[in-house]
Amino acid sequence: MAWTAAQAQRLSWEINIVGNYFPTMRWYNAPDPARAYVEGVLRTNSGRDYSLRVYVPPTFPSTCPDMVVASPAPLRDRKGRKMDEASASMHTLGTRDGCTKICHYRPNLWVPQNTVYLVLLKGRIWLEAYESHLRSGRDLDAYLPHM
Fold first, then answer.
1. What are phi and psi of 105, to 5 degrees?
2. What DSSP state is assigned to residue 61?
3. Which residues 6+ apart lie within 8 Å of 92 measured at CB?
4. Distance, CA of 54 to CA of 17 (rounded, Å)
């Protein structure tokens, strides 16, 4: 299976936007809809580095991509427990490929106008909320609204 012409054009646009605003992010397997993803390291305000990965589904942009924290994997909460289960209060959705899957958009509210850039931006905000949790012990709900 290959991307449609419209999807290929959209991905080209997405690659440029992500490259401009998130230069540490790299696209992998972009020509292959079954294996395409974006991954890179983001540094939080506290100076810690985390690797985010966005899986671009074959039905993109009609379908919401999954996003995980690829490193460290799995994430651990302030008490050292693995964050490997779905939790509304922690904005997690279980795991994918051994990595903590994080909430960024409700799949049923996803619209094709949303972008990988916006997904990464929400991932960056999620990481700041996670670090606030590590400092305070409060759930991510204290810092992030449900979308």
1. -145, 145
2. T
3. 83, 85, 86, 100, 101, 102, 103
4. 15
SS3 call for 66: strand
* Residue 31, helix vs strand vs coil: coil
Task: Give the architecture (CATH level 2) of 5-138.
Answer: Roll (3.10)
Q: What is the pLDDT of residues 56-115, one digit of tens each?
A: 999 999 999 999 999 999 899 999 999 999 999 999 999 999 999 999 999 999 999 999
Residue carrying structure tokens 């992998």: 28
Sorted by where each begins, the domain ranges of the chain are: 5-138
CA distance 38 to 53: 6
Decide: residue 92, CB within 10 A, 0-12 exposed, 13-18 middle, 19+ buried: buried
